[in-house]
Every structure is written in structure tokens, then in C-alpha cells.
UniProtKB/TrEMBL annotation:
It comes from Brasilonema bromeliae SPC951. The keyword Lyase applies. This is PBS lyase. The keyword Lyase applies. Belongs to the CpcE/RpcE/PecE family. Keywords: Antenna complex, Lyase, Phycobilisome. SMART domains: ARM, EZ_HEAT. One of its GO terms (molecular function) is lyase activity. InterPro entries: ARM-like, ARM-type_fold, Armadillo, PBS_lyase_HEAT. PROSITE patterns: ARM_REPEAT. Gene3D superfamilies: Leucine-rich Repeat Variant. PANTHER family: DEOXYHYPUSINE HYDROXYLASE, PBS LYASE HEAT-LIKE PROTEIN.
């Protein structure tokens, strides 16, 4: 092995002398492989390997820098001082400083935190600032204190908030709470989204307050966050608190509220979702979201509301979506009702049955539900004049033959 290492060292030096960076990178990659990196001969030559690698980093093209960055990372903490020097050099090429910041982030060494923070405070390049902030975010708990300090400056507050949001540790809760009422919408939205991931008693009041934020992105994040806390449904009366957002002026917020209520579950949530579904002048996208939510809410009343909507609303797109979601009901306490609704459409000659796509969807859904009472109606569909209906009825019957 020693001979092989010495041979690679000679080849690396020759490639360096010839400024053949591609060949030099290959040699350095082999010399710093995990299984060889602790070999005494490698350790003895680490300083020299570092010198060679830094030369490629400083003068290579983008691809060569990308490849040598991995080599530098594998060399460990020995690379930190020269990389910090590059980072501090205001006359150095921006791309070179960016690579230095990335490698320092990968190494996760606390000695790299002060220069990265200083770069964020003083640099005017947005791209370089983003890379430095990302590097700090990679360091996790090591960087929380430094990122918290950056919240005090308007120039760095957004980036610091974003990086804190990536560090999903309870130590970030306090600094994130300090910016939930910031004047910048993006900062409030990022902070609310990040806080939503913590089950901490300080968070729910913040989310509830953010439901009425003047900015739609913040309201949406609050709605989404509360939607994942059905455990607080009764204690915080969440269905009632989310209900106003169903008629928000922003459709994204409305859709988020529909999804949140479906996660809440229960009769009250189902009732609110039905009111959205049958509201006049409602956008079709929101109607479709409400239909899906009523099938997810997990109550018998949710299916009954869908049944009612089939006859109250006169939109084929709505009918087809209801038929489709009924076929996806998986709760065994609800599948009988779902099949009953679909069979009733056939028995009562619902207007949707006259539409080939909808009749086909009924066949598919009945097959998915696997109820034997669907066999006769599906058999009758085999004589339908629409070839697509016949095809889907046949497929449904085959599926039923395996489940009944």
C-alpha cells in the first residue's frame, strides 16, 4: 500500500507541475479515500495535499472546483484556516469565496462560525450571503446563537430566520418567536411555518394570532400549522377558529383551510366543509378541494353531505369528483355507505349517469369498494352503448370476483 500511496503522491506532484488539474483531482481523490485517509503516509503528507487541493480550488473551473471541494472536506479541520482566509479576502473572486463558505458549512466546525457571521454582516452580494447563511444553517445547534444575533439587523434578519427554520431543534423556538410580528411578510411566514413543527405550549397562541395576519402567506402557514394539531381541536376550538379562513380573500388560504378541517375530523368540521361546497359562486378548485376533504374527514355525515351535493349541485365536474372520491373510501365503517350512494345514482337515473365519463367512474369506484351488491348493476353495464363504460364495468367485475 505504501508504494501505491507514494506513486500517487509522485503523480499528483507531476500533475500539479503541469497544471493538469483533472489528473491532480483524480490523484487526490484516490489519496483521500476513506479507507486510506488515516494511513500514516497520508497523514504525513496532509499539509502538502492541502496545498495541492487549494491550488485547484483557486484556479480551476467550476466543475474542477466542485470536485476538489469534496477532497477538501475529506481532509478535515486542517482546511479551515486557509478557507477562512479566502472567505475574509474581499479581493478574492466571489465564486471562490462561495466555495470556501460551502466547504466550511460541510465541516460543521465552530471556528468557522465567526467569519461566516461577519460575511453576512458586511457583504453586499445577495448570493454570497445566501451561501454563508446556508453554511451556518448546516451547522445546526452550533450556529443558533450566532444566527440569533443576526436577527437584530434588518439586512440579515430574513436569511437568519430562514436558516433557523432549517434547524428543527427546540433551541430555535425563542429566536423564531421574536420575529413572528416582524414588519417583513417573508420573515413572519418563515417563522410561523418553522414554529408549526414544534409541539410546544408557546406555539399555538402564535398560530392562532397569525390566522388574522394582514398577509395571505402568513395566514396560510398558520392554517396549515394548526391543521396538524387535531389534538388541540376541542381545547382551542380550532374548527371555529379555522372557519373564517374558508372564505378568505386569498384562494390558497381557503384551500389550506379546507385541508386543515379535513384533518380536524368530526361533525362540526364536516358541516363547515359542506357549507363551502354548496356556497354560491365558489371557484371550482375550492369545490373540488371541499369534496376531497369531506371524503377524508372520516365521518358518516361527510359522505351524506357528498350525497346531498350530488343532487343539489348541477355541475358534471363536481359529480365526477364525488363519484371518484367515494371509490377511494377505505374506512370499513364507511364503505357500505359509499357504495350505497353510487348504486342510488344508477337506480334513480341521476343526470350524471347519462354522461359516459361519470358512468365509467361509477363502475370503477364500485369495483374499488368491493361490495357484492354492485355485481348486478355492473353486469347490466356490460351492455351499455358506451365502449368505455363496458370496459370499466368489466374491469370492476373482475376485481369483485377476487374480493367477494
Amino acid at each position: 500500500m505504501v508504494n501505491n500511496i507514494n506513486q500517487l503522491l509522485v503523480q499528483a506532484q507531476a500533475a500539479y507541475n503541469a497544471a493538469n488539474w483533472s489528473s491532480l483531482i483524480q490523484c487526490l481523490q484516490q489519496l483521500t479515500q476513506q479507507q486510506d485517509s488515516e494511513h500514516p503516509e497520508i497523514l504525513k503528507n496532509q499539509e502538502h495535499l492541502l496545498e495541492l487541493a487549494l491550488q485547484v480550488l483557486e484556479t480551476g473551473d467550476f466543475q474542477q472546483r466542485w470536485e476538489i471541494a469534496k477532497v477538501l472536506t475529506s481532509l478535515g479541520n486542517i482546511v479551515i484556516p486557509p478557507l477562512i482566509d479566502i472567505l475574509k479576502d474581499e479581493d478574492a473572486e466571489e465564486e471562490l469565496r462561495a466555495y470556501a463558505a460551502r466547504i466550511l458549512g460541510d465541516l460543521k466546525n465552530p471556528n468557522a462560525i465567526p467569519p461566516l457571521v461577519e460575511l453576512l454582516k458586511t457583504n453586499e452580494s445577495d448570493e454570497l450571503m445566501k451561501i454563508a447563511a446556508t453554511a451556518l444553517g448546516q451547522m445546526g445547534s452550533l450556529a443558533i446563537a450566532s444566527l440569533t444575533e443576526l436577527l437584530a439587523q434588518e439586512q440579515t434578519r430574513l436569511l437568519a430566520t430562514q436558516m433557523l427554520s432549517y434547524i428543527r431543534q427546540k433551541e430555535t423556538i425563542a429566536p423564531l418567536l421574536s420575529v413572528v410580528e416582524d414588519s417583513q411578510v417573508a420573515i413572519r411566514a418563515v417563522a410561523v411555518e418553522a414554529l408549526s413543527s414544534f409541539h410546544d405550549h408557546r406555539v399555538p397562541p402564535v398560530l392562532i394570532n397569525a390566522l388574522n395576519d394582514v398577509a395571505a402567506p402568513v395566514r396560510r402557514e398558520a392554517v396549515v400549522g394548526l391543521g396538524f394539531r387535531p389534538d388541540l381541536r376541542e381545547a382551542l376550538n380550532l374548527v371555529a377558529r379555522l372557519q373564517p379562513r374558508l372564505s378568505d380573500i386569498n384562494q390558497d388560504v381557503c384551500c389550506a383551510a379546507v385541508a386543515a378541517l379535513s384533518r380536524m375530523g368530526g361533525e362540526a368540521a364536516a358541516q363547515q366543509l359542506f357549507q363551502v361546497l354548496v356556497s354560491p359562486n365558489i371557484p371550482i378548485q375550492l369545490q373540488l378541494e371541499a369534496i376531497r376533504a369531506l371524503s377524508w374527514v372520516g365521518t358518516l355525515s361527510g359522505l351524506k353531505y357528498l350525497q346531498q351535493a350530488l343532487y343539489q349541485l348541477q355541475f358534471p365536474t363536481v359529480w365526477q369528483e364525488i363519484v371518484t372520491v367515494l371509490g377511494r373510501v377505505s374506512d370499513t365503517t364507511l364503505t357500505d355507505k359509499a357504495a350505497e350512494i353510487l348504486l342510488e345514482m344508477l337506480q334513480q337515473n341521476h343526470p350524471g349517469v347519462e354522461i359516459g365519463n361519470i358512468k365509467s367512474a361509477i363502475a370503477l369506484s364500485l369495483g374499488q369498494l368491493g361490495k357484492k351488491q354492485a355485481i348486478n348493476p355492473l353486469t347490466q353495464m356490460l351492455a351499455d352503448e358506451d365502449a368505455q363504460v363496458r370496459l370499466h364495468a368489466s374491469a370492476a367485475l373482475k376485481k369483485l370476483s377476487f374480493t367477494t
